[in-house]
């Protein structure tokens, strides 16, 4: 396994309203995804019972839904980025 690198592209962009969002998600979806992405760290959370497990399963489904939406948009964005011809900042000498 290779060592992780810090050169991975960021998956956040600034939307038209100036909000930092995950590619493909709205600001509200980004906030929701980030909240769902954090484990429940409340004291005693593991003891809440069946209702909590059902809620957690629904949250998991919503997390997957948002992740898939983001991942598809990210893949499209990366493909478009790779397809753009590299433009030199200097004029050609032809």
Automatic annotation (TrEMBL):
Protein name: Uncharacterized protein
Superkingdom as given in the UniProt entry: Bacteria
Lineage: Bacteria, Pseudomonadati, Pseudomonadota, Alphaproteobacteria, Hyphomicrobiales
